[in-house]
Amino acid sequence: VVGIAEDIVQRTLTQEQRYQYYVPIAQYDRTWGNGMLIKLRGDVTHNAEGVRQALQALVPGGSYLRVRSMEDVVQRQRRSWTLGATMFAAFGLLALLVAAVGLYGAIAYDVAQRMHELGIRVALGAGSPTILGLVLGRSVRYAMVGSALGLLLALASRRWVQPLLYGTSATDVRVYGGVAALMLAVALVAAALPASGATRADPVQAIRSD
């Protein structure tokens, strides 16, 4: 034994890291074929043929050598994961858009129903920041309740979701935090237009509307 090597992922990206031992090339079982890792500077794609010719010259009479970049080897295994991630992202954006439209409709309807109340508040001296806070506050509460329910459902389904993920965990705090922040931002944007309309409402017309 001349040294200690780290555990590695040997054949597939989804395989767990396992212990690995190395033997002299003279003791290697050639039935599995020989491979060599070479670190190059510059563009690997343009240098691949030169590397192949140089290695072929070192083993004259040997079989044809194939040279592939590590990116190509990894990308072939990641292709299905990339496609799945793209589809999940597309459906996620669609769901986010639907949620934003639904939230806008709910807030706009709520503002229309409360216009009499808001008009009285304006008549009693409530300023635009107060009215804006009332409308946006309800939107934020909707987003917080929805995010909490979504978080609970995500945690409950993590056992089934984890096999579909690569390179991340189904309980990644950064992902949950980012999604919650995004939902809050979408809720504020969706409620901005109804809230702005509520601040410009004529108190006399608002009171007469009931």
The total count of strands amounts to 0
Strand content: under 5%
Distance between the first and last residues' Cα: 89 Å
- Could you give the order of the helices and strands? HHHHHHH
**Average pLDDT figure:** 78
* Continuous helix count: 7
Give the helix level as a range of percent. 55-70%
Summarize the main sheet.
none
Stretches where pLDDT is under 50 for at least 5 consecutive residues are: none
Counting structural domains, the number is 2
Given the C-alpha coordinates, what overall shape results? elongated
Judged by helices, strands and strand pairing, the structural class is mainly alpha
| Spatial extent as radius of gyration | 30 Å
Describe this protein's structure.
This protein has 210 residues and is mainly alpha-helical. It has two domains: 1-68, no CATH class; 79-208, no CATH class. It contains seven helices and no strands. Helix 2 (70-113) runs parallel beside helix 6 (173-199) and helix 4 packs antiparallel against helix 6. The longest helix has 44 residues, at 70-113. The radius of gyration is 30 Å and the shape is elongated. It starts with 43 loop residues before the first helix and ends with a helix. The model has no long low-confidence stretch (mean pLDDT 78).
